[in-house]
Amino acid sequence: MRFSFSLILLLICGVTPAQAAENTYTAENTLAKYSDDYPFISIASINAPASVLAHKDIAYVSDGERRLHLDLYRPAETSGSPTPGVILVHGGGWQAGYRTHLTPIAIKLAEAGIAAATISYRLAPEALYPAAIYDTKAALRWMRANAGQYHINPEQLAVAGSSAGGQIASLTGVTNGLEEFDPQAATSKVSSDAQLIINIDGLSDFTSEKARKYEDAPRDKPSSAVLWLGGHYAQQTERWHEASPIYYVNQATPPILFLASGRTRFYVGRDEMIRRLNQHGIPSKVVTFSNTPHSFWLFDPWMQPAASAIAAFIKEQFAAKI
User: Fold this and answer.
1) DSSP code, position 147
2) Is 202 within 8 Å of 164 (Cβ atoms)?
3) CATH superfamily of 2-318
4) Cβ proximity of 97 and 122 under 8 Å
5) Residue ranges of domains in the chain
6) Which helix (H) or strand (E) holds 173?
7) Where are the alpha helices (DSSP H) in the chain?
8) DSSP for 216-236?
């Protein structure tokens, strides 16, 4: 049923299933696109050192025969206190990408004493908004339910993402406790709440004039946002509003770290969201990687400082002695 509904919306938008299903957002293709302007970069390694334990291809949620999987990376040394945990959501315009895109960051976080899980989630056209939010909350719930097994502190969980994954992570975190974004909440005693949010170059407001300039402009092929939200702004105004993290800021919103590239279009709404966070006394921080392309986190020399900024924020906010 979900797929049929998604397919109908895609056909209305003028996109064939074959076009929508292409998943060409890989580190290799992105490197080829960036290599002329950034000849010094290289794809960050996905090989874990001996100090990191890797638990791969774990099913974290299922819907009938459909299962979603994650890879968990954690410190090999487990003699101290349980570690903070973080769910990592890859980007790709809500319709592409792979969880291995954030494996290098997950490994570096594990080296820093933080358990990190990279997740696969349902992409368009299989499922449109808000399915990815459901999946990310399910991943948080899985991590909390299995925290003891993996030496994780269930009260210290963060959600992080890059690009479209940054928007997904933000919306997941700012909607803590809202059952309309969490179908499992009615039947589970385990919370899906996140205590921190990390948004790497992801939109905070689909409805702003600048966002709509890029995401809602007339063109031959609809934008990724139009596809994921099921129509243009005029057709799906309520959805564009609902999917914007900025509208959920309140006194209970978790602290947020924003990592930014040199491409301002990808973090539209951030400054206004920070203003609203400040009104409620919610901590936030911005770390900017100037003169970088959008997908900077995939590559050295930028991946390591990005991971370090995330680890520092998590430790600072949780005051973890690790």
Assistant:
1) T
2) yes
3) Alpha/Beta hydrolase fold, catalytic domain (3.40.50.1820)
4) no
5) 2-318
6) helix 164-174
7) 2-12, 17-21, 27-34, 103-111, 131-145, 164-174, 209-215, 224-229, 237-242, 270-279, 303-318
8) S---SS--HHHHHHTS-TTTS
In residues, how long is the chain? 322
Each of the 322 residues of the chain gets a pLDDT tens digit; together they read: 333 444 444 444 444 444 445 788 999 999 999 999 999 999 999 999 999 999 999 999 997 778 999 999 999 998 889 999 999 999 999 999 999 999 999 999 999 999 999 999 999 989 999 999 999 999 999 999 999 999 999 999 999 999 999 999 999 999 999 999 999 999 999 999 999 999 999 999 999 999 999 899 877 788 999 999 999 999 999 999 999 999 999 999 999 999 999 998 888 999 999 999 999 999 999 999 999 999 999 999 999 999 999 999 999 999 844 4
Per DSSP, the three-state class of 237 is: helix
The predicted model scores a pTM of 0.92
**Token pair belonging to 76:** 């090999």
**Which whole-number Å values give the CA distances from 106 to 49, 73, 89, 122, in the listed order?**
12, 6, 11, 20
Residue 49: other Cβ atoms inside 10 A: 10
